Amino acid sequence: MDPRIDPPFLRGMTQRRAISRRSALKMAGLAAAGAALSGCSIPGRGVTGTVAKADAVADFWKGKQKNGSLRFANWPLYIDKEGSRYPSLELFKEETGISVTYQEAVQDNSTWFGKIQPQLAAGQDIGFDLMVMTNSIQLNRAIQLGYLVPLDHKQLPNFGGNAAGRVKSPLWDQGNAYTVPWAVGVTGIAYNPKYVDGEITSVQELWNPKYKGKVGMMLDSQEVANFGLFATGVDPDKSAQADWEKAAAKLKEQRDQGIVRKYYENDYVDALVRGDVWVTMAWSGDVFQQIAEGQDLKFVVPAEGGTIWTDNMCIPKTARNPVDALMLMDFVYRPDVAQMLVEYINYIAPVPATKELILADAAKAKGEDKESLEQIANSPLIFPSSADQAKLRNYVTLTSEQEKVFEGIFQPITQG
Amino acid sequence: MRRLTPYLLILPGGLWLLVFLIVPLVYMASVSTMEGDVVNGFAQTFNFAGYLDAFGAYQTQFLRSAVYGLAGTAIAIALAYPMAYWIAFKGGSRKSTYLLLVLLPFFVSFVLRTVSWKFLLADDGILFEPLKSIGVLPEDFRVLQTTVAVVGGLVYNYLPFMVLPIYVALERVDYRVVEAAYDLYASRVGAFTRIVLPLSLPGLFAGVLMTFVPMTADYVNAAILGGPDNTMIGNIIQQQYLVNNDYPVGAALSFTLMAVMLIGIFAYAKALGTQNVLEAAAR
C-alpha cells in the first residue's frame, strides 16, 4: 500500500503521539533513574595533612562558649558506676555546672563510624559532643576527613601535667591534635588454666594443634594481623607489604588446619569463660574484670610481643557543646578523678599518679575493699611491669591506599 | 471522585514505597558502578566490571548462602507442615492458642534468641556437659561454630514464617472434600497427596518465599553461631558497607544477590507449574 494514503500512517506522522499515562510514568521513572545513574557521585572529603594548624585551633574555638550540657558517647562498662549513677560525672557537674548525658552508644569502631559518617559528611549533629574511639583505621579516617575538632591544649592543663609520657603524642595523632586517651589497653593472650596445662608464654601456642578448634582469634583485621606478624617475628609498627603477606600465609595455615574456632569480636570473653575456647587473643581489661569477678583466667603479654592500643576521646566537628566536651577531657586527667575511673574500668591508667593514690586508699581501707584496691594497684594489667612494657608494640599506621592493600591481604582470612 | 478513590487508597503506601524503597534502590544501583574510596570520594565511572570482580571474589559465600537457604527452607518445611496440619485439623477450639505459641518467640528480640543458643549449646554447657561426662558424646564434640549451628539458627528464627502461611492454606481446606475422597476409596496417603497437598501448595509457596529469601540474605546467625567457614554473603555485604566503607562493592553484591534470588524464585514458580503462583500465594 502506498504509505502516503494510509490514514493511520499519516496521522502517526503528523500528529503528536498520544502517550498513555502509564508509559509517561514509566518514562519519568526511567529519566529519573538515568539522571541518578549518570549524574551524581559521592564527593571525597579528605583534608590535606593530619596535623592541625595553629590557626585552625584558634578559628574553631573563637567565640565558643560553655553551654552547661554535654552528650557523651562511650563504650559499655567504661565509666565508674554506682547503681544508675556515675559518681565522676556527678562530681563534674558539682564543680562545673555541666550536666552530662552519658550513653553507651559505641559497640565497635567500624559500626560506630558507619553510623556517624553520613551525618558528619553532611555537616549534621550526630547527637553527641564527645565520643571515644580506638586508634584504628576508622579514627585515622575521621581525622583525614576533617571530622574532628582540633583541640585547644591551652584548655587542657591537667592532660599536659598528668598524662603518662607514653600516651602523649601517639603516632596516629601527633601532638594530640585531635584526641586525648580515655584508657589504654593491651592485646595479649588469655587462657583458661582449667583446660591448659602449664604456662603459655608464646604466640606460637595459638598455632598449637593440641588446641585445635579451641583457639580464638580476633575479627578486626589489624588485631589479627598483628599476631600473625608477631608469629613471623616482625614488629607490626615496622611492617611492610611483604611482611603482611607472610603473616597472612601463617594465619591462613592456622585457619585451614581448623585450629581457629572463630574470629571473635567482644564475645570472645564469654567463649573463654564457658570453655568454648581455651586460648585466645584478648584485651587486658576484659580479662582483669573476669578475674576480679572470681574467674580463673590468665592473661599474658607473649614473649614475641603484644600490642598497645588507646581508646581516645574526641569531639566531632558538628558538636553543639564543644567547650563543655573539652572541659570534661581535662577533668578526667585530674589524678583524683582518674583514680575513680581506673578503679572501675581496670584498663591501663593514662595517669600514672593514680597508682600511689590507690595504694594510699588501700592502706586506709579494710577487708575486701583493701584486697581489691591492692589487686588493682599491683595488677600488671593495669600498671604493666617494665618487662611487659618493653614487649608492647604499636599498630602500624596506614594511609588510605595502604589500608586497601592491608585489608585485601587480611580480610579474606577472617571472611572465610 | 469515586474514580479517584482507589488511587487515593494506594497513595500513602505507594509514596512510602517510592520514597523508602525505589529511591534508595535507584541510588544504590548508581553507587554500585562507582569507583573510589571514602576519603577521596566515589566517582561514577559505570564500572560494570565491578559486579564481576565482586561476584568472583565472593562466589564461595554466594554458593554457601544459597545452600544454607535451601537446606534451611527444606528443614523448615519438614518441621512446619506437620505442625500446621495438626493445628488446622486437630487444633479444635484451641487453634488460636497454638498459633500464639508458634508466634511466641517473636516477642523476644531476634538477636537475643540467637545469642541464647550460645549458652545452650556451649561445649561444656548445660546440654552437652552431662552427655559428655557419661560418654554419650566424644570430648571434642561441638555444635557452635559449625554449619549445623548456623542452619539450625536460621530454621529456628524463621520457622513461624513457614508455619503460618501453610496453616492459613490448610485451614481453608473444606474437610468434607477429604471425606469425599475417602468415600471414593482413596487411601489416607492418596487423600493427602492428591487432595490436601495440592490445596495447600499456595501456602507452601508463600512459606518458601518468606523463609528462603531472608534466610539466604541473613547475617546474624552466621555472625553469632558460625565459625570461620560459615560466613554468608550477608556478612560480607555488612562488612563492605560498615567496616570497609566500600559502598560500590557492597551495593554490587546486594544487587547480584537480589538478581540471583529473583531468578531462582521465578524458576521455582515456573517449575511448580503455577503461572500466577505469586497471586495464588497472596490470595
UniProtKB/TrEMBL annotation, chain A:
PANTHER family: SPERMIDINE/PUTRESCINE-BINDING PERIPLASMIC PROTEIN, SPERMIDINE_PUTRESCINE-BINDING PERIPLASMIC PROTEIN. One of its GO terms (biological process) is polyamine transport. GO terms for molecular function: polyamine binding. One of its GO terms (cellular component) is periplasmic space. Its main location: periplasm. The keyword Transport applies. The keyword Signal applies. This is ABC transporter substrate-binding protein.
TrEMBL record, chain B:
Signal peptide: none annotated. Residues 62-268 form the ABC transmembrane type-1 domain. It is found in: Cell membrane. InterPro entries: MetI-like (IPR000515), MetI-like_sf (IPR035906). SUPFAM superfamilies: MetI-like. GO terms for cellular component: plasma membrane. It is a multi-pass membrane protein. Keywords: Cell membrane, Membrane, Transmembrane, Transmembrane helix, Transport. It comes from the Bacteria. One of its GO terms (biological process) is transmembrane transport. The chain crosses the membrane at residues 7-27, 66-86, 98-120, 148-170, 191-213, 249-269. Belongs to the binding-protein-dependent transport system permease family. CysTW subfamily. This is ABC transporter permease. The lineage of its organism: Bacteria, Bacillati, Actinomycetota, Actinomycetes, Streptosporangiales.
